[in-house]
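[Q] Does anyone have a clean structure-token version of this?
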Amino acid sequence: MENATSKRRLSRHFLALFCSTGFLTIVPIALYGGLIVWSGDLGGPLNLAIIPVMSAIIGFGISLVVFMPISLLAESSSFQRWRHIVGRLLVALTAVVVLAWIFVGSIKPQNRVFLVVGSLCLYFVGGFFVYLCCLTVCRRIWPPSPSESSGTTRIG
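[A] Here you go.
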């Protein structure tokens, strides 16, 4: 019984790892595509291979090293509360970054680093939110066994 529970839990986390890696890979590729369209310059054909491969490697590393341990912590505590906190943080960061992009013309060049940092935070929090959402869907497909779940771990 314990082996089936472990397999189910690992399956959920590997699927969530795959989804967040996909998100963290697609975002830089889309931004690079936008840069190509905006500037009209490919920057060299090798970039069309390097950008996706490096994005996938970086996305997998971030998902494995950062998101998986945090999500294991979230599963052992109130999973629903973590999902709500990360969702609210994502909405707040999105609002801040969008407002910063709107007013980017009035920002001095030396202060644009805050815009970049805010965008990177949005990227990471968005990737973690994708991880948690995928984990939630997987928990609905493969529900935790009674020995795996505790009183504070609720799905809905």
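[Q] Thanks! Anything notable?
[A] Residues 151-156 have pLDDT under 50 and may be disordered.
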